[in-house]
From TrEMBL:
<dbReference type="Pfam" id="PF00005">
    <property type="entry name" value="ABC_tran"/>
</dbReference>
<dbReference type="GO" id="GO:0005524">
    <property type="term" value="F:ATP binding"/>
</dbReference>
<keyword id="KW-0547">Nucleotide-binding</keyword>
<keyword id="KW-0813">Transport</keyword>
<keyword id="KW-0067">ATP-binding</keyword>
<dbReference type="InterPro" id="IPR050683">
    <property type="entry name" value="Bact_Polysacc_Export_ATP-bd"/>
</dbReference>
<dbReference type="InterPro" id="IPR003593">
    <property type="entry name" value="AAA+_ATPase"/>
</dbReference>
<dbReference type="InterPro" id="IPR003439">
    <property type="entry name" value="ABC_transporter-like_ATP-bd"/>
</dbReference>
<protein>
    <submittedName>
        <fullName>ATP-binding cassette domain-containing protein</fullName>
    </submittedName>
</protein>
<dbReference type="InterPro" id="IPR015860">
    <property type="entry name" value="ABC_transpr_TagH-like"/>
</dbReference>
<dbReference type="InterPro" id="IPR027417">
    <property type="entry name" value="P-loop_NTPase"/>
</dbReference>
<comment type="similarity">
    <text>Belongs to the ABC transporter superfamily.</text>
</comment>
<feature type="domain" description="ABC transporter">
    <location>
        <begin position="35"/>
        <end position="256"/>
    </location>
</feature>
Length: 404
């Protein structure tokens, strides 16, 4: 690897999916909504969707580069294209070294083979000799902590064991470039910390790490540079702080845009007018009340229902709540304010967002990020408010729940 040529060079890279075919469908309503918002073009009889569009960038040697962007921005697709899991539709990729990867759990290993056999298989696929693999074998096994199960087929591994071994193989085999997707979040906290340290060492050795994550803290801790993708396009490349700033601002911008019902997905025959949370600061086990005011459309025949998602900061849906469960169907002839109450689960302190859907047979209105709330660290002495309780030493100050 010469330092004058970059580790990765990408020029005019694009990936277009043909959508509407089985297996290519969006998996969630929000996903469908996001696609709709990106105005897929119809070319001929197919609907084509640009998951990546005209990306051009270089990644130098020794960088740990974070790939940041909102859900559906194209982060995983970019890693899949770089690692040749999927072919690009346009453009050019230059990898000036071998690339090891850890993408979705379940890819990369052969389920019927044992841990030991998979280590050799992976090494061979990366073009390594048996001798080279043997040299790293012990450190791979030690790091992964799955020594006891080395001769067990990996299909019997838990997802945590699987990820530990897969990460260990990817990080220890001598590939010059390492591509890791969010998947590490599957492991326990201790393993995540150990993996981050390992990735930092890999970059210090002059190799290059590409890392996809929604976790702002992890990106800050690991990465030395970042690229920010927005709807499949490269919106920023540079330092981590700049990329994270854009990422944070995209949520505010998106929330503002979504207030304008005309920009939201859905048939529009009926729209939510307003969404409120009973209280915007809750205890971890507090009841979450979501009030959805829905307008009227006397021309709409039949009744509708509402549902909502509660999402964590990473955009994962934690709770889905649906008025149909309690027989909540509403007549569109008049305006209604519908109350959805979620009594469980216990939520860890942090910031949550709420998506609201007004539906009949299809989606009439999908309002992503319609409201948000904060779950506070539990105060066992509610008679003393926040700071006062802390200064009196009554509340444990070392809660581990630092959200960004
Ligand atoms: N095989 C496929 N066929 C059709 N569309 C696809 C396929 N794979 C991904 N897409 C679409 O391409 C877009 C980008 O997906 P990708 O998984 O790369 O995004 P991401 O930024 O990694 O999102 P997330 O943060 O949610 O994982 C999404 O809208 C997704 O639905």
């Amino acid at each position: 690897m010469s330092s004058s040529t970059p580790a990765v060079r990408v020029a005019g890279l694009g990936k277009t999916y043909r959508i509407g075919l089985s297996g290519d469908r969006p998996t969630t309503a929000v996903e469908a909504a996001l696609r709709w918002a990106r105005n897929p073009v119809r070319r001929g009889s197919h609907e084509l969707f640009d998951a990546l569009d005209d990306l051009t960038f270089d990644i130098p040697w020794g960088e740990a580069t974070g790939i940041i962007g909102r859900n559906g921005a194209g982060k995983s697709t970019l890693l899949k294209v770089l690692t040749r899991i999927t072919a690009p539709t346009r453009g050019r990729i230059e990898l000036n070294g071998r690339i090891g990867s850890l993408l979705e759990v379940g890819t990369g290993f052969h389920p019927e083979l044992t841990g030991r056999e998979n280590i050799y298989l992976n090494g061979a696929l990366l073009g390594m000799t048996r001798g080279e693999i043997r040299r790293h074998f012990d450190e791979i096994v030690d790091f992964s902590g799955v020594a006891q199960f080395l001769d067990t087929p990996v299909k019997r591994y838990s997802s945590g064991m699987y990820v530990r071994l897969a990460f260990s193989v990817a990080a220890h085999l001598e590939t010059e470039i390492l591509a890791i997707d969010e998947v590490l979040a599957v492991g326990d906290a201790e393993f995540q910390a150990k993996s981050l340290a390992k990735m930092r060492d890999v970059a210090k050795d002059g190799r290059t790490v590409l890392f996809v994550s929604h976790q702002v803290q992890t990106v800050t801790a690991l990465c030395t540079s970042a690229i920010y993708l927005d709807k499949g396009r490269l919106a920023y490349e540079g330092d981590v702080a700049g990329a994270l700033d854009l990422y944070r601002r995209s949520f505010e911008k998106f929330a503002l845009e979504q207030r304008d019902a005309g920009t939201r997905p859905g048939s529009g025959e009926l729209r939510a007018i307003d969404v409120e949370i009973g209280e915007d600061q809750l205890e971890p086990d507090g009841e979450k009340t979501i009030l959805v005011r829905v307008g009227a459309n006397p021309k709409l025949i039949g009744s509708y229902f509402v549902s909502c998602h509660i999402n964590d900061v990473n955009g994962s849906v934690l709770v889905q709540c649906d008025s149909r469960v309690v027989g909540g169907w509403y007549d569109a002839a008049t305006e209604h304010t519908i109350r959805l109450t979620v009594r469980t689960p216990w939520l860890k302190p942090g910031r949550y967002t709420v998506d609201v859907f007004v539906c009949k047979t299809g989606v009439l209105d999908a309002w992503e990020g319609a409201a948000g709330f904060e779950v506070l660290p539990h105060n066992p002495y509610p008679e003393l408010a926040g700071d006062e309780a802390l200064t009196k030493g009554l509340v444990l100050a070392d809660f581990d729940y630092k959200e960004d």
